[in-house]
Amino acid sequence: MKPRLSLAVLALLAGCAVGPDYSRPTLDLPTTLAANAAEQHYVQQDIRRNWWALFGSIELDALIEHAMRANHGIASAEAALRAAQENVLAQQGYFFPSAQLGYTPTRTKLAGNLGGNSPGVQGNGSVISTTQNTPASQGGTAPFNAPVIYNFHTAQLSVAYTPDVFGGARREVESAEAQQQTQRFQLEAAYITLASNIVAAALQDALLRRQIAIVTGMIDNNQATLALTQRQMKAGYASALELANQRSALAQSRQLLPPLRKQLEQNRDLLRVLAGIPADGGVPAFALDAFKTPQDLPQALPSQLVEQRPDVRAAEAQLQAASAQVGVARAARLPQLSITANAGGAASQFGQMFWSSGKFFDLTASMTQTLFDGGMLKHRERAAEQALQGAVADYRMTVATAFQNVADVLYAIDSDAAALQAAADASEAAKAALDLSQRQHARGYLDRLALIAAEQNVHQAGIALAQARASQLGDAAALYQALGGGWWNRETTAQSKGVQHD
């Protein structure tokens, strides 16, 4: 009856694990994520995995799809996930017995001058006595044994098992699985960040090309005007001051071009690195007019944001891993049970190892309890508890940062519409002012300096309009990233194709 009771107690203990069971901390969530912009239409919608396709650029779609396969950061994150998956499988092996098979042949030579009766060997390798006892009165010496050389063979199967009585191993598996989830969500975040960075770089490429085109047009216009002013001066219709002002305007416009070209080449280098394209490889040339702003931007509930943001999910997985480590540290302070069994054979000749006389076995169960270790295990448990508290704070901080990120993007989108409209109005006003200035200058009512200023205002207004347009597109892309980037739909698509990510 007692053995049955002991087994029942062990079975009951095996069903529980010491340490806290993980539960998500309480969060102070805002009531809504809605923006205040009346110009922009937000819709409660699911985010598609390739949200960048909504911007209408085939070149951008192809570049991002290529980057998903060739980017080195993605390859590193994928390798980290596979390593975490293998660590989970390795930790699960703790629940199975370990078995080892060993064979040990030995050849031993014993010194013969040790005195006493030492074993000898026959020709077949068996041990015999080689003691010589010649009396000293007959001319003999003290007892002497000849050196002995013999062989010995041992083959053994060892099986060991450590029952997880207090759940320390289960907590280790829980921690490893949480670390796997951390790597999984970090991979998803890497995908989203890569796509967002490429969209931002593509928009920057388009903006710089528009600015370069405007500045180049400004230079061409100033060169033509300078040539006209030179001819007018020779004919007596323009002064030296007007000529000097025109040369100054040309020099100032030329000064704007080199920094823009440098930024363009540096940005294209960034595109190559992000897309995994060699340094001498080509990347598309993007045009600002080729992009379109999505008509309906996505909107999410606060509770959805916590589930959709991969950085929040990764922080929660880290929190669960820290919670499990408290159980690991607590289980280490409790009694440790182990069971070992050995079976095999031993003999002086290989073929005799498994004779009935050569077989052996042993079965051992042991339980140990640490009585004194200088407080090492106690302080490790306390350290794990403090790490858990830190993980809770990190998780809540990640959630707060996520909501701040979304709020910042929504406010930016709110102002983008007004900024774009203001830039468009300023551009139209500058063009109208230039038209009037040109007619007044032709009739002699306006000097050339005022005309040059009107021309520069048109070009500056064009650059500001392009910047406002690029900002509007960039903030729309940032919203898709801030709301999670649709990684869950990318996973669904991959699973439908038979690809395993988890």
Automatic annotation (TrEMBL):
Its main location: membrane. PROSITE patterns: PROKAR_LIPOPROTEIN. It is found in: Cell membrane. InterPro entries: MdtP/NodT-like, OMP_efflux. It holds the Pfam family OEP. Transmembrane segments: none annotated. One of its GO terms (molecular function) is efflux transmembrane transporter activity. Keywords: Lipoprotein, Membrane, Palmitate, Transmembrane, Transmembrane beta strand. GO terms for cellular component: plasma membrane. It is a lipid-anchor. Belongs to the outer membrane factor (OMF) (TC 1.B.17) family. This is Efflux transporter outer membrane subunit. It comes from Duganella lactea. The lineage of its organism: Bacteria, Pseudomonadati, Pseudomonadota, Betaproteobacteria, Burkholderiales.
